Amino acid sequence: MSALTRREMDVMAVLWDLGSATVAEVRERIDDDLAYNTVLTMLRILEEKGLAGREKHGRAHRYRPLLGRAEAGRSILGRLRDKVFSGSAERLMIQLVSEEQLSPEAVRRLQELLERQLADGDRPEKEDEK
Fold it and tell me: Longest C-alpha distance within the chain, in Å?
C-alpha cells in the first residue's frame, strides 16, 4: 500500500464512514475548508493509487474506498512501529497505553489479548517484534 498523506487519510476516513460519497459530501465532512477542486484532486489521487474507486451517479461521481480501514491501520501502525519505535511493537504498545486513559473494559480486553499471547508460548518470536 502506498503511504497516505494526512489529507488523504482525512478523505479516506469520510469514505470509510459513509461507504461512498461525492466530492461535495467529502468536502462537507472534512474539518478544513478545502476548495472543491482540491478535494476532487485528492480523490483522483486516491483512485490512481488504487485506494478508492468511482462510479457515475447521475451527473456526479460517487467514490468508495477500495482499501479497508483495518488494512490501512495495519500498514500505518507497521510503518510507525518501524520508523518511530525501531521495529519494537512493545515500545509502540507501551506508548499507546501510557498516553490514553483506558476504560476498565478496554484494559480487560488488552489483558485477555496479552494472556492469550503468553499462553501461546510455542509461537516463535517474529524478528520485527524484538
Answer: 58
